[in-house]
Each structure stands twice: as C-alpha cells, then as structure tokens.
Amino acid sequence: MSSNPDDAPAPPPATAGEGAVSRQEFDALFSAVRTWGRWADADRGAWNRVTPEQVRRAAALVRSGTLVPMARPWDTAPGPDNNKPALHYMSDLGDVEPPEPATHKDFIAVDYHGKAVSHLDALSHIAYRGQLYEGRAAQECIDAGGARFGAVSALGPLVTRGVLLDLPTVFGVPWLEPGRAVHAADLVAAEQALGVTIGEGDAVLLRSGSLRRRQERGAWNTGAASAGLHVDAMPLLAERGIALLGGDGDSDVRPSPVDGLHSPVHALAVAAMGVPLLDNLDLEALSAASASTGRYEFLLLVAPLNIPGATGSPVSPVAVL
Amino acid sequence: MSSNPDDAPAPPPATAGEGAVSRQEFDALFSAVRTWGRWADADRGAWNRVTPEQVRRAAALVRSGTLVPMARPWDTAPGPDNNKPALHYMSDLGDVEPPEPATHKDFIAVDYHGKAVSHLDALSHIAYRGQLYEGRAAQECIDAGGARFGAVSALGPLVTRGVLLDLPTVFGVPWLEPGRAVHAADLVAAEQALGVTIGEGDAVLLRSGSLRRRQERGAWNTGAASAGLHVDAMPLLAERGIALLGGDGDSDVRPSPVDGLHSPVHALAVAAMGVPLLDNLDLEALSAASASTGRYEFLLLVAPLNIPGATGSPVSPVAVL
Amino acid sequence: MSSNPDDAPAPPPATAGEGAVSRQEFDALFSAVRTWGRWADADRGAWNRVTPEQVRRAAALVRSGTLVPMARPWDTAPGPDNNKPALHYMSDLGDVEPPEPATHKDFIAVDYHGKAVSHLDALSHIAYRGQLYEGRAAQECIDAGGARFGAVSALGPLVTRGVLLDLPTVFGVPWLEPGRAVHAADLVAAEQALGVTIGEGDAVLLRSGSLRRRQERGAWNTGAASAGLHVDAMPLLAERGIALLGGDGDSDVRPSPVDGLHSPVHALAVAAMGVPLLDNLDLEALSAASASTGRYEFLLLVAPLNIPGATGSPVSPVAVL
Amino acid sequence: MSSNPDDAPAPPPATAGEGAVSRQEFDALFSAVRTWGRWADADRGAWNRVTPEQVRRAAALVRSGTLVPMARPWDTAPGPDNNKPALHYMSDLGDVEPPEPATHKDFIAVDYHGKAVSHLDALSHIAYRGQLYEGRAAQECIDAGGARFGAVSALGPLVTRGVLLDLPTVFGVPWLEPGRAVHAADLVAAEQALGVTIGEGDAVLLRSGSLRRRQERGAWNTGAASAGLHVDAMPLLAERGIALLGGDGDSDVRPSPVDGLHSPVHALAVAAMGVPLLDNLDLEALSAASASTGRYEFLLLVAPLNIPGATGSPVSPVAVL
C-alpha cells in the first residue's frame, strides 16, 4: 500500500447498467458458492471454519494492544438512512427504586435490521427461494416465536483474524460513490495494495468510506444507492473460505445489479455460503489506525447478544491491533 | 487447587446477623477505596488501568483457543428473579419487505438492569449520597435524555485478563447458599486454592453457583437472598487495582449487611472505585472448562453496545482460553 | 333483584367433570351459532347490528349522567395473572425538549392480549380450524405485517346499550369461585333477578366478581382457573343477537369444558358469531352503581385505538348511567 | 353558515411578524385566564365543569345516531411530521400459543406526544415557569416513575358537548395555510357562520384543514409551520369556560408569536386554565358530516387509557351525531 495517491490504482468508472446479472446467472452463482451439507453444526455455517487453531493465530496478531471499536452510536433519530429509529428511555433517575445507593436505569429497544444500527445477520435472516442456509425450509424453521434454525444464539461469539479492505485508501479517493460496485478485481487489487491476503476463516471488512461521505455531505437513502459488492466478487470470497463479511454499508451494492433481487450478496453470503454479515460498521477509526501502522489484519471480536430465536443482534465489534 | 473435596477449605457458616456494618463504618470504607481524581478520562474509571500493555498480556494468555461465552439467554418470561422480562418480537417473517431474498427481522427491547439479563453497569448507574464516581453530582449529569457522565458509550470495549474465583469449587460445595457473604479471607483462600493472584487491571469474576442452584432447585427471589461480596472484601480488591468486577449474581450479598443500604458493593465498586460491574453471568461452562485445565485466568472480552447516554448495556462477555 | 341473600337463587355447585363437551358437540355448536355471510361489512361482524337507531336508543338510556369507567390500571408489574407486564417510561421530564413551556412525555408499550390489560378482541384475534370469522383463511389474512381482515381499525368505535349481568349479586355471593361455569340458565336467572332482557345489538357484560376476589385473596393464575361462560350459554346469546360480550375475566370458564380447546367461548363468539370480546374489565364500580339505582342497562362506549392491522386494542370502556 | 363561498368572510392575511407578543404580555395573559384553586379535584382541571347535567345535555344532542371517529391511523413510518414513529409488531401468528383456537396477538408501543398520533394531553404534560396547573411544582410532582399530579388516570373519561369550528368552511378555503394564526375574532366569526355558541363545559375542536392539505400537498414539518390559535384567542375561550380544546393540529400556531415560548397555547390551556388538549385529530369526516346536517354540535366521547402516572394517552375520540 502506498500513501501516495499517484500510486493508487485508478478508481474504476461507475457501473450503471454495466455488470447486470440475470436471474439465471445468479442461480448458477448461488449453486457454485453453496456450502450446504458441509458441517454437522449447520446453524453456525462458515463460523465452523474458525477453529481453536484459528483463534490462536488471531491472538498472535496482537501487536500494540490498541482496541478499535466499530459500532456506530445507537441512533434514535429518524432520517433518510434510518427509518426505524432505535429507542432509549431512562427508566429510573434515582427516583423509582429507593436509595441508597441511587440507581439509574434505562430501557432500550430496536428493530435492528436496517441501515443504521451496527448489527450481525445470523443465518436465519435470509432465505432464497424459500430456503435458508443448508436448504432448510424457512416456513418450517421460522415463525412468530423466532427462528429454530440459524438463530444468533446458535452462533455464539467469534474471535478470528479480521482483514480490512480499505477501498478509498486503495483507490486514493475519500470514498466510493454510492452505486459503485466492488468487483473481484477490486478485492485482489486491495489485497496487493494493502499487503494482506484473505484466507480461510477470516472476517473480511469492506470500507467504502460511506460514513465519511455522510459526515461531509449529509445522510442519503442508502437503500437506493450505496457502494458495495457486486455478486461477481463472491466466488473469490467463497474460494478463500471466509467466515464473516462486513462493512460500513450492508455489503450489497445498490441499486442491485441482479434482475429481481434487492440484496443478492445477502442471498449468496448468508443463504448459500453460511457467512453471517456485519452491517453498518464505523470503520473510520480502524482505517486511520491501519494506515498509521500499515497493517490491515488484526484480531477481531464479535459478541452478539444471546437472544434465542433472534435473526441477528446489535453488536459492537472490536479490533485488537 | 485440588479436585479432592477433602482438601477443600471448610465452607464458612452463614453470616446472618454477624458481619453487620454501620453506615459510619461504610462511609469510612467508601473514603478508603475511593479513586476520584486519578484519571483524566474519568468516565472510564478503573478501565484506565487496562493499558495496551495489559491487553497484550491478556492476549498472551490464550492457550487452546477455546471460546467460552457467559451471557444468559435473553429471558422473556417473568419469574421470581425476573420482574422485568425482556421482549423479542418478529417484525418480518419474509412477508413484510418484498422478496427476493426473503428477510426475517426482529425487534428486541429490555430494561436491562435487574436480575435476569447479563449486563454491564457503567459508572452512571450508581450514585451514593447524590454523587457519581469522581464526585460528580448525579442530578447535574443525568436526566431523561441520558447520562452525560459515566455513560456506557464512554467506556467502549474491554480486553483484559479475567480471573475466575470459582467459590463452590474452592469450598467443595455445589453452590454457595443464598445469603452467604464472601469475605476478603474467602478471596485469598480462592486465590491460593485456584493458583491465581488478582492484579492490576484484572477482571474478577465471582462464581457462587447460583445458576446451578437455580437449575436444580428452581428460581427464587435473588433480590431477597443471594450469595455475594461482603463490603469487607472490597479493600482487598481496591488494593489489587481491579478494572472490572462481575459474577453470576450482581456482586452484592443479600440481605445487605450494611445498615440502610440495599447494594453497598455497587456503591463501593461503581461510585467509589470506578469499577464497572458485570451482573448475571452464566459461569457454568467457564467453571467446567477451568476445572479441566486447572487454569483460572484467561483473556476476557466485553463489548457493550454503543448507546450514548446509557447507564450500561446488555453484553455477551467471552473468555478465550 | 333482591338485596336479601335469602332470596337469592342458590349458587349452583362447581362443574368439575360435569358439563364436559366433546369436540364433535362443540363443532355442532359452532355451526349452529355461525353468522357467516350475513353482512357486507364482514370485518365488523356483529357490530353491524348496532344501527344508528340502536345508538339513539342507547343515548335515550341516560338518566343521571354519571360516567363509570371500566378500565383496569395499566399493569407494569408481573404476577400470576400478568405474565406480559405493560411498559411505561417517561421520555421527557422537561429536560429533553427545550422550555418554555417544559413538556413531560412518556412512552407506553404493551402486548395487550392476555390476562391483565382491559382490551378489545377484534375479529382477527381468533381462528378455529384455520378460519377466521366469515370463513376467511387465517393464513391468507394475517402475517407479520398485521391482519388484513378483522383488524380493530375496521371495527371503529361502538355506542350501544350495555347490560350488566352481575352474577354475584344475583346469587348472593361475594364472587363466583374460579372454575365456576356460567350456563344459559344462569343468564336467564340473572335477567329475571336484575330486571333486564338481553336484546339485539346489546353489549353483555358478565361480572364474576374476580377483581373483588383478587383484592381480598390476592392474585392467582386465572389461565388455570376462572369463572366464565360455559359453551352451552352461547346459543342463547346468539339467539338474542348480541353485538359485544365482555366481563371481568375473558368470558371463557377455565379449565375449559371442551375437549382439546383452551378457549371455546372465544372461538364461538369471535370466529363463529363475529362478536368482539372485552376482556379484563373492572366492573366493581359499575356493580355498585347499578345496585344503587337498580338499573342494569346503560349507554356503553368503546373506542379502540385506530391501529391498522391490529388484532384488538387496549380500551377504556365507559358506561353512562 | 353558508355553502356559498361568496358568502364566506374573507380569509384574513397571514400574520408573519404581526401579532407578536412579548413575554410580559404573555405573563399577564397567563394570570388573566388562570383558574387555579377553583376545584377540589384539581387533577381534573376544567373537566370539573362537565357535570352530570352537562353529560345529560350532551346525550340529548344525539339526532341520527351516526358515529364519527376522529383518530388518525397509528403511524409507524417516520416522516417530516412524524419523528417518533409508533411501533406495531405481531407477537403471535397462531404459532406461539398452542391452538385450538389459534390466537393472533400484537405488541404496540408509542411515545405518543408529538405530531402524528391522536392523543390527549393531561395536566401533567405542561409546566410554565416550573409550575403545573394549580401552581404545583413540576419537580415535586413528576419523576421517572410518572406524574403524581395531573396524570391521565386522574382525568378518566369525558362525555360532553363537542363544538366543531370548521374554519376552512367558514372562510371558504380548502385549508388554513401553515402559519395562519386564529384570533378571537375568527372564533366569533366561526360561531356566527356555523350557528353555534361555545359555552360552559364544551369541548372545542378547531379544524384547520391540515390533513386535507397533507393529503393533497404531502407532509411537511408542522413543528415549523402550522395553523393554530394565537394566544389572543384564549381569553375568549377562558371566559366561555371550555372543558377541552382540540384540533387537527396541536392548537398552537407555529411559528409561535410569543417571544421565547415554543407552545404558548399549551401553557395557557393546560397550565393556566386546566384545559386538556386533543392533538392531531382527523376532522375530515366530521367536517363533511357537519356540513351535510348544518349542525356543528354533537355528543363527544373521549376515553383515555387508564395509565397511572401518564401525562396523556393515545385516544380515539368519537362524535355521536
């Protein structure tokens, strides 16, 4: 990686129109990356790749001992990219339960899937053609009582090697423009520029710079336009055997390049590959820290709430540098 | 530590009546363990003790790479020890947002302080004589909009050495009976029996076995009777410079031995020492794992949700063995 | 009606065992009382009986102008008869939004069906053998987005004649014991004793005295044992053409006398007859007021919240005497 | 009233700048309309004016028996006039509790004060210069546990004469433009045009036509600009002895004409006069019905939820014509 913008690979042009994928092509992709039937503990999907050996290797990556949190603040205000604001109310200001000591308490609530809260998608979050990961019928596994397959409570915590693909740094731009599709070639370029190679059991975090753009330009409807992965990048990630995919968006480029599918990367990652997703991270501090050390790998911790039957969880992922 | 119950120190008798502490004695204790004015970043209290060096040492503790989660399941059913049940509702069963892919979503809510959900108490949770940690006036720092001092969002994540004081194992009993006070001498006995010494920046986790008792005997009102620390144990923990205190209860023995105070250990730890608390952990798996390896120290990760102004957070702490 | 207990009809014996109804008998009953296909505006079921003429007659019942509310207080504490406590948090204590003036605000939440909150059951609340009222398939009408048939928002408000069947007064007892089944003969006895005849478009409110019992004896699990209607009383109510059925319980006697059905009166009233139910009323004040005037009829108002797709609503019904 | 637009009084010009009121003038107004100390049952404020005699007179107004509901639909989507969207989730789709019968249930939640949900403001909602109605100190009466004075549970239900002041009809316009202040002279003109005179114990409902404007022009930020009462109209309403004030806005014209006060009509009505407010009604159907009969008075029913300590309640007011 170079800090000289002149050395940066040229940012590719926007993909409007170009890169369109038919439903038939998508279905072929889906079959190609599918890992159904591979693990006894199917609920955990690709997290089965994270063996104790992988955890030990991740721990061995710790150098400075600096912690870098990645969770965005709980957002209670609606906006163009937050149509389901989180709730936070004080339930005791020291005046409800008797002192001493005085206790201050609060109530929190959130419909966490969406565009604003940092969260993990468990395997029950997504079904394609009626099937969850492992080919389980969504209708038989999920009802108003929650998910009986692919719940976040089946995942448990994750400690593994995290890899930051800091694309604006790679391309020498402040951010990828909304709608910019990230292709396999971009991932390979990022690996080379940043000096890191994605491997088995890794958590891959894609930085598009959307949060920096939001800070400078204001919020926009990210459901309509956001930078993210094109489906043609998924075979590479499948081949490498990643355990987790995340980013400062929700991984999918929007508008979707696939005919009739609003979130094709979700379908491939979660339903075909068994790879949970980390959405809406704040990767700004990690980008700065990585730039200063020149290292784009680190120990990554993800500890979802233990909610039986939930399709995911708000989380506060942490990088240990 | 010995696996032979005959070698175990005799379990001390119950403390009913015995060990009573006057308010005056408590106030002297409070002054003695107080660390106000010590850190520029006062919101983080004793977490300031966890330096990058401490993080590196914790990472070096990893041996097998086994992860042991400690969060109890999100409990939506009321009971004698759960008077504020958590909420979990499905907000989309693939029939609200249009496919493809189908998306399953859920809404979660909880007033998390209490007896049932595993959670972290931030420094704004407790005030004694009107003062939060650092002597900050509670009324000036906390209102219906949240806490402006001592919020969980100021804490961020924690990675440090965790130490399990597995008292039932030490004493050769299945659990400590509700009401059993844990004194300084018990902590010292545990250190010796388990071969571990509490030090600067450590997270101390106390296992009373209450969860095992709950499984075998059924739930009871833990607010009325629970095993936990007597205030006389706090000077030892203050002297050792701990960063975090937690357990399978809420750290306080109940009934309280201190005249007029319902939660004296909360007051000492949070308001005097700046030590956040971890309440209601499930330490059963960690107990079994530690017994099998004979090691009672490990890398501990705590990653609270990033909720501005919140007095704590539900958490899923993880031990990496 | 007489205030002399000696004149009261003898309270019938408990029905344990006696009165058992087979599933086949129930299905015959269901067919017999069914009113499917009767109204163009099927969502409103038996509320179609409440014509403007019926409203005018109800208004003409007003004598003293006294209002008698019937809603129990919003119950935020769990208990043997409240396993889904309501929530109430202050969201502004004059310290969130800027003054002047200072504004105080609150957040309320409830999963209102259950045993504790006074609420209305709309026609989408109950399906029998997969069918809602009018024979609509539940699976086609209700999903995670709400009910498209039989929602409370389709009902709107109700003003009609209310009739109080004050059974403890009729039988000269402080309350009906939990498990006491109310049969058709009891309804007829009540009409005669109280001097009122149930007619077309009426709202029938059954008082069992359960709230008085709760106040004197403490709360109990009303899901296991409560006084209420035996299914054999429903043909009489069907014949009379009632519009609404309610009470201080949830109308069903428990344990259920019908083999394999937990709430047979719900099935008959809501799914067969299109009669919404009013559950968990406080009828104590209405009982006292009616006793003092000797009149057991009044103008009744029910104004559910206008929640599109909801299966009912918390309500505060009011009698105008 | 005339249906001929040519007969309509000329719509007054907008009030930008004009009509500004100093804080000193406002305080004099506040003192002039104040009714503190008048009623033993101070929590109920001006609802004390609604005697049983007033209820009987209201019942006598019923002519056709037509019910006209006024509650807007529960709005779960954020928007320029809804920054605190209501929540509605299905908690049972017949798949959580066991059949038969199948039960469908839902969870509702809302922070109901604001611009979108039809609701009642109880007397605890507003304090001016630290004082609630009756001069009660807000800080002593309201804490995180709720309001101990002026709670909605102290109000109970209301049945009284309602009077619709349908201003667009009076002025022959489709709606009052946002920012249009309604003055005392406008109220008098409306009385004359509509053939109704506001009297003791009445509920006055002001229609600005904002909902029609919203339907035709789209939503806007009503907190920034809305038609409503100028404070100079309040002495007239005080003199007439009204019990309740409401409308399709929140009664206050915005921007506020009073220096430093965001909601001066709230302060006068609630804190000085003890008059609860009804916000965000849908008066379109009532307008049409009143126009067709030429009668602008009716029986009005308001039945707030019985929530102890709440500062108001979502409601579904109903007119009986």
Question: Strand pairing plus helix content of chain A: what structural class?
Answer: alpha/beta
CATH superfamily placement of chain A: Putative cyclase
Q: How many domains comprise the coordinates of chain A?
A: 1
What order do the SSEs of chain A take from the amino end to the carboxyl end, as H and E? HHEEEEEHEEHEHEHEHEHEHEHEEE
> How helix-rich are the residues of chain A, as a percent range?
10-25%
Account of the 3D structure:
The structure is a homotetramer of 321-residue chains. The first copy, chain A, is an alpha/beta fold and 321 residues long. Chain A has one domain (18-74, 114-320): 3-Layer(bba) Sandwich (Glucose Oxidase, domain 1). Chain A has 10 helices and 16 strands. Chain A has helices spanning 23-33, 52-59, 138-141, 152-155, 167-171, 184-194, 210-217, 234-240, 264-272, 284-293; strands at 67-69, 87-93, 102-111, 119-121, 126-127, 142-143, 146-147, 158-166, 181-182, 203-207, 228-229, 244-247, 277-279, 297-302, 312-314, 318-320. In chain A, helix 1 (23-33) runs parallel beside helix 9. The longest helix of chain A has 11 residues, at 23-33. The two termini of chain A are 18 Å apart. Residues 1-16 of chain A have low confidence and may be disordered. Chains A and B meet through helix 2, strand 2, strand 3, strand 5 and strand 6 of A and helix 2, strand 2, strand 3, strand 5 and strand 6 of B. Strand 3 of chain C pairs antiparallel with strand 5 of chain D.
